[in-house]
Specification:
About 10% of the residues lie in helices and about 35% in strands. It is mainly beta and about 375 residues long. Strand 5 and strand 6 (about 80) form a beta hairpin.
Length: about 375
């Protein structure tokens, strides 16, 4: 905050959904299958803040609505993600949390179906910018928004903001854990199956879940990772032993950045003993083991404590003070369980800045392939191997 008193360059402007008749209908309506442009900016400047809230009767509309951003007249988006995942919570629901660059503001202590969403990532553009919202719900949505920006010259070496959604459902586990359960149950040894999994070696990272593959010069600034835990190790409900690996500028094995476990990369330890928490640079924005979790999920189930790592989770890590630099390329992946042994539902959004042009994104999954499993289906999968 020590520079707040200094003179600032530029002209402050806003694109918003205010009612230009002077009334209080301060929103737009986006019909099913329609796309609306919420910002169409000319010249150069920097987007500094985006605020959005939505009214919809569609379940999982946070996964059905897609946000795209384009810089400098480009035809392919630099940002493409379901709106809930972009703002930091996966699985098509809302959850209250506050980080430095992103937040959701809603009822605390439950999984919700409504939220205010804020983004404070700075997004420079040199020759125009546009933001589009595609409604893939079955019904129309009521959409409120601010896009706050400053008109000003942007340095030629300014990188452009990027964000990309991915999902793999299920990941391709290297061990058939449901089959291992029958063998595990024959032995009076609680860690029999766990010891078999821990003996697996991963010496190339080839089967890791991929959060980001980018080409060019830039720096990676964070991600969120959402997991629905469908395939636990028999006798062990924890899902987070997968190591993170960053292959930078085409380097061979081993990568220069190799981690020690999923919760370690997300700046926690010992199997997320905190449960949900939100910090400025890292946290768990959604912790929803199988039980009655609020308005978005209404099924009530009784669960034993050993199922505390079942269900749906979203965790985040932002490299605000420690961005990961690449000059030619970056490939960021994480094991789905130790040695890629588990077949779970993984989805993510990666955030980075780079010089254009960027590598073409994989085609975003059709809406029906983005939707989460029901709580009941998730429980059924979990119990088959646990």
């Amino acid at each position: 905050m020590n520079n707040l008193y200094m003179r600032k360059e530029g002209i402050s402007r806003r694109s918003s959904s205010w009612d230009q008749t002077g009334g209080n209908t301060d929103h737009i309506i986006i019909g099913p299958g329609d796309t609306s442009m919420i910002a169409d900016l000319a010249g150069s400047g920097v987007i500094q803040h985006i605020w959005i809230t939505i009214a919809s009767s569609d379940r999982h509309y946070f996964r059905k609505i897609v946000m795209r951003m384009y810089w400098d007249g480009e035809q392919e988006p630099s940002v493409e993600a379901p709106i809930g995942d972009f703002f930091g919570v996966g699985h098509g629901v809302a959850s209250h949390y506050v980080s430095l660059p992103l937040n959701m503001i809603t009822t605390q202590g439950m999984v919700e179906d409504k939220a205010a969403m804020n983004c404070f990532f700075e997004m420079p553009f040199g020759n125009g910018a546009r933001i589009e919202i595609e409604n893939e719900c079955e019904k129309e949505i009521v959409f409120y928004y601010y896009v706050d920006y400053v008109e000003k010259p942007v340095p030629e070496d300014a990188f452009r903001f990027h964000a990309q959604f991915r999902r793999e459902m299920p990941t391709k586990g290297l061990i058939q854990l449901e089959g291992l359960k029958a063998e595990h149950d024959k032995y009076d040894h609680p860690f029999y199956a766990n010891d078999i999994v821990n003996a697996v070696k991963n010496l190339d990272g080839a089967e890791n879940y991929i959060l980001l593959e980018a080409e060019g010069e830039g720096h990676y600034v964070g991600c969120n990772l959402s997991i629905d835990h469908l395939d636990p190790i028999p006798g062990n409900s924890w899902f987070g032993e997968g190591d993170d690996m960053f292959f930078i500028d085409g380097e061979p094995w081993p990568p220069r950045l190799h981690g020690t476990g999923t919760e370690d990369y997300f700046c926690a330890a010992w199997c997320y003993p905190s449960g949900k928490y939100d910090g400025p640079y890292h946290g768990i924005s959604l912790a929803a083991p199988i039980r009655a979790n609020g308005h978005a999920w209404t099924e009530k189930t009784l669960i034993p404590t050993e199922m505390d790592y079942s269900g749906k989770w979203t965790t985040y890590r932002f490299h605000i003070v420690d961005p990961i630099i690449f000059r030619k390329s970056i490939r960021f992946g994480i094991e789905h369980g130790h040695g890629n042994c588990q077949s779970n539902d993984y989805s993510s959004v990666a955030y980075w800045y780079q010089r254009e042009p960027h590598k073409a994104f994989p085609q975003i999954l059709p809406v029906e392939q983005r939707l989460p499993l029901s709580e009941r289906a998730s429980m059924s999968h979990f119990l088959k191997s646990f």
